[in-house]
Amino acid sequence: MFIVAGLGNPGNKYSENRHNVGFMCIDRIHSFHSFPSWKKKFSAEISEKHLDDIRIILLKPQTFMNLSGKSLIEVINFYKLSLQKCLIIHDELDLSLGILRLKTGGGDAGHNGLKSISEKCGKNYKRLRIGIGRPQNKEYVIKHVLSDFYPSEQSVLFPILDNIARHIPLLVKKEDDLFLNYVVQRQELSSKIISL
Asked: Where is this site: Stabilizes the basic form of H active site to accept a proton (predicted)?
């Protein structure tokens, strides 16, 4: 069993915000792999399915970002899972738009969702960081993360989210390098096709 959780804020008001890219990614995984309908449980929306003989739980905490750990710890305790059986997908200010990085452990870098998870569950979990870019002026950070992606940003980011969804089973099986290679290669191919 493996938990794949995306971070975001619940409600239509926030659904297209940069801060909600974790939710966007989870929704694409849910759609691409034909997961069953969402259920409300553990202060979250969850859906379960077997992919490549591994039971996957998709999780979207509905507690608002700064309480994300409350939902995750409920799931971990209920299923008696270790934190190593979790992948957290979230937005990353310190990466340019669409850049992906995998990381296990470490600090929260001011991300309130990660801070909540680290406080409630511990820090030794894997993260898929999705770059949303950082505004030059620090005063605009909150406005930046709580604003929607521009159409030009969507055209860059959304195909990447689709590629993540397609290859997410590789991350569950700890094929991290292969996952990143496939996602990058597909993105490069898409860019070449668009430019022709």
From this structure: 91
